Amino acid sequence: MMPGSDTAVETLGLRKAYRSVRGRVVGIEGLDLRVPVGGIHALLGLPGSGRTTTLRLLTGLAHADGGAIKIFGTPVPDGLPDLAGRIGAVVGEPGFQAGLSGRRNLTLLASAAGVPRTRVDEVLARVLLTDRATTAYRTYSADEGRRLALAAALLCDPDLLVVDEPSAGLDAVGTREIREALRRLADQGKTVLLATGVLTEAQQIADTVTVLDGGRVLAQGVVADLLGDAEVSVRVRLDEPGKAATALRAAGFKVRADGDALYVDGVAEPSDVSRALAKQKLFVSELVPQREDLAAVVGRLRPVTPPTPKVPTRAEERAARKATERQAAERRKAADQRKTAKEAAAKQAAADAERAERAAEKQAAADEKAAAKQAAADEKGAKQASGSTTDTATTDTAKTGAAKTGAAKTGAAKTGAAKTGAAKTGAAKTGAAKTGAAKTGTPKPQRTEGTR
Fold first, then answer.
1. What is the model's pLDDT at position 14?
2. Mean pLDDT across 91-117
3. Confidence at residue 157, expressed as pLDDT on a 0 to 100 scale
4. Do 4-226 and 232-301 have matching folds?
5. Which residues contact 78 (CB under 8 A, 6 or more apart)?
6. What is the pLDDT of residue 444?
7. Angle 118-126/172-187 helices, nearest 10 degrees?
């Protein structure tokens, strides 16, 4: 821990939470911060880490839920009136009048703070806005507006300058100018506390750093020890690597070749490499800085701790029990559905098998019947063929027999006729005899052979 006389800002167990539609949101939790006097100290962290919330608590723009703050040994927020002339802040949007010039806006602020007007031109010169001092604020670019806000924070010649996101919304030129302005102030003995989410910004201009994560301090100390050097290696690809290597070495870069790529080591700004090549009319097809990003730094510094088991409340226990019962009921229902589906499938399979068996039996019976019918037809055909031959022979025999029978009948007829004629003749004779006998009165004669 740093001695109190060497500490510009100190916090102990600082806490702040916000209410939102999703419930209570923790801004910072148990923050212990140490900012040394002099130089630039960066509050570095990913979005939501608590950087801006910390600055708002330090400058009295928000009130802490707990913990303690001291600035130059004076408790805050109670002692802020005593620190009014020692703290300058650029937090949030400045309240400048759009129709007034930059100088006029600063003059009004100086009058309200009891600062001599001569101070206005001094701070404008510090932030390199003298040539734009008489121009209306509405015509200022983003970086000019940011520098004017910085000039307003310097009116009272503060010992501590608090700046939130100094390069946010600025182009490359504006970013470089604001960083150079902050660096000059630190070199003049001021203490600059800035919050940033840009790793290279902290590496390039900060002397010390506090890395925040989830409203807590992950690590704090010297930038070189925690973050490493801001210089990086840049991988470059282009059509003429040999000519490019010569041009970069002439510009003072350290160049090494690896296949069709060039690696430029010790580069503070990768854009310097492309700029040096463009001057020689050499244009890159690939320029890749190779360095650790902020997320990797936070991940590296974040301690690996086992999760602390949370004791559930009664409501959470009831909800969990109901959820378990609901899941069990859903599992039982699903099991019943699977069982029912399985049984239905088994019944369907049995029914299908039974239908198939009946169909097979029916088909077999039909086949057997057809075979029997065919056999009967074949047998009938054979009989018919055999009967035809027999009938022919029978017919011939019958015809012969009939002829013989006819001849016999004819002979019999003739014989009968002869017999009939003889009988008739005998009868006639008999009659004649009877007639004669009667006439003569003679007795009847005896039967003769002729009558028989």
1. 92
2. 89
3. 87
4. no
5. none
6. 45
7. 120
392 Cβ partners below 8 Å, 6+ apart?
none
Q: Is the pLDDT of residue 72 over 60?
A: yes
- CA–CA dist 308, 37 (Å, integer): 38
Domain ranges of the chain: 4-226, 232-301, 332-389, 422-452
Q: What is 439-452 written as a DSSP string?
A: HHTPPPPPPPTTT-
In the numeric block, the tokens 């991940």 are attached to 299
Bridge partner residues of 108 (DSSP): none
- Residues 105-110: contacts with CB under 8 Å, at least 24 apart: 105/137, 105/148, 105/152, 106/148, 106/151, 106/152, 106/155, 109/152, 109/155, 110/155
Q: Is the pTM of this model over 0.90?
A: no
Backbone torsion region of residue 13, taken as left when φ is above 0, otherwise alpha when ψ lies between -120 and 50, otherwise beta: left
Tell me the H-state helices in 94-171: 102-113, 118-126, 142-153
CA distance 23 to 17: 10
- Please choose, from the candidates 260, 288, 254, the residue with its C-alpha nearest in 3D space to the C-alpha of residue 274: 288
Token pair, residue 25, equals 């949101």
Straight-line distance from the first to the last Cα atom of the chain, in angstroms, rounded to the nearest whole number: 185
Distances 354 to 340, 341, 359, 411 between C-alpha atoms, Å: 21, 20, 8, 82
Architecture of the domain made up of 232-301: 2-Layer Sandwich (3.30)
Instruction: Kindly state the helix (H) or strand (E) to which residue 160 belongs, with its residue range.
Output: strand 160-164
CA distances from 422 to 166, 276, 370, 448, 450 (A): 175, 173, 73, 13, 8
Nearest to 42 by CA among 148, 135, 166: 166
Mean pLDDT of the region 427-444: 40
235-294 tens-digit pLDDT: 899 888 889 999 989 988 888 888 888 888 877 778 888 888 988 888 888 888 877 667
Which of 91-100, 135-144, 178-187, 438-447 is predicted with the least confidence, judged by mean pLDDT? Answer: 438-447
Residue 412 has pLDDT above 50, yes or no: no
Q: Is the pLDDT of residue 377 over 80?
A: yes
Q: What is the CATH number of domain 4-226?
A: 3.40.50.300
Q: From CA 172, how far away is CA 372, in angstroms rounded?
A: 105
